[in-house]
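Hey, resending since the last one bounced:
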Amino acid sequence: MSRFYITKIAASGEKVEYSSVPFKDGVNFIEGPSNTGKSYVIGCIDFMFAGKEVPFSKDDTGYDTVMLEMESDDGYSFKAERKIEDGSSGDKGSNVVKVYSDFPGVDKDEYKVGNGEYSTLLLSLIGIDKVPKIIATQAPTDEEMTIRTIFHFFFLSEENIFEKRTPLDNPDHSKITKSLTSLIYLLTADDLNRFLPKISVEELEKRATRKAGVISYLNQKIVDLSKQKEQLEEALAADDGVDIDAKIDEFVAEIEKVERQIVDASEESRKLLVQIYEVNAKLQEARFLGNRYRALHSQYMSDIKRLIFIVDGDAKGKTIHHKDNCPFCGHEMDSEEEDRTSYVESAKSELARIRLQLGDLEVTETDTRKEIKELEETLKALNAQNSNITKLLNQNLRPHAAELRAVVAEFRRIQHVRQQLQFIAYMSTELGTDVFEKENEEDETATKFDAKKNFDKNIWKDLSESVNEMIKDCAYTGKPESYLNINTADVVVGGRHKKNQGKGYRAFLNTIMLFNLMKYLESSGKYASHFLVLDSPILSLKEKKYSIKESEKATKGMRESLIQYIIDHCGNNQLIVAENELPETVNYQNANRITFTMDEEQGRYGFLHSVRNPEEE
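The structure tokens again:
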């Protein structure tokens, strides 16, 4: 089957400049300020797929013709052209579309919109060669499926992207039956033209009431668990992604290392204290000897002085001659030499001996002083080493060990909280499964045709699981458990139905639902369009326009993750996304960005070359 994708949207008029926007296969972004024509481009796509609304006013813009160009993977081309005409109540789309194509089955150049010719041609482009009749009401009655019956699966306008109702329902339908039966046909090629068994209304109401009570109880439990999970995740926000077991092992190993260092340092300090004691004892002994040597030195010096005095006195005494006079008459008397004993030789001998001993003593004193100095330096070095080790122990190692133990205790706390989160996640998943199974259990109580009861449960489960995974992967706050509720054909996130959430969150969830539907049709559907058009899925800079409160906005992380996810998982499909402003943190390498600047001097002003924003004029 050929797969077509849009290559160009264009507009022209008699007195205006031809304007076109080229698209590539894969992801395309149209970005720029409001009033630059992004919604015109989206409106043109809707218009060329048999939409009733004209994308812009012919009188206001001067443009009256819209063109669509597509190509297929196997080389076929398709070009369509549709006029904007005057109607009784304003502009309207022409009932005739001019077609130029080499695609098999295109056998004329003009197709009418009103009688279904053009719709039949568009359906053939996605492989539906024979228009099916599908059940359209619960009565049931059937009618032919058209391209507009299913177009909302591939197209979300700015006005509908944040709707409370499910994006699986056509905004133009009063009931969801036609949308679901047409979706079932796309998925399985089953037209479901079968009647269901009937049962009394009373019994139906009783069973429905019981079932609703069980589902309500389970959903409340999921809500409670989601709140608890959110609180715990807030406490763990800073440690998200940390391998706690590895960190505990790492810090325990570090503690063991530090404790070994403490033991080694303590042992080294003990050895140093032993050396300090030994050196100190030697120093005290050396100082004691030094004091004794100084005293002996003083004694030797005194002895030397005394002996020198004796020798000098003896020598001088020999040179003194006494003249004795008579005490009576005064005459000089002859004196006789006194026989004196001399101690000079013995004094000299003693002096020589003492001087010899003094020399030895001085050598010993010098050695002792040197020894004392060496011992003091050794003691000082040993005390310094011991002081450094003590400082290392008291100021570094022991405090560091205490800090490490505190970190390990904190990691063990985080580990415990994570275990609680795992249990909550498990319980939430189990409860979600219970709700899903309860909502989809076999029920033969329907008195009218109910498309939901005929939806293949395995397909619904696969869609539900893929939506759940994408919601988590796109950083939805708290990463709650989510599922598709078969009764509302819509998503329930953390026990809360989508309709009860803010506009920004609804746009986020509606986008995820249709993106996953596109991917499922691509991989497992019988028929697939292989394209999706989204107008403002993250509503950037449009909060004021739609009165969106701060609490209703999708978070910055959710917006960035959603855009990145769309780019990374587009697959064999084409996406066209219009946004005022795209997050620049996203990797757009594999995307085509078309930018309108509303600036005459820089880039492209807008889609329609001959139209300017009235506020700028």
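The CA atoms of residues 106 and 121 lie 7 Å apart.

Sorry for the duplicate.
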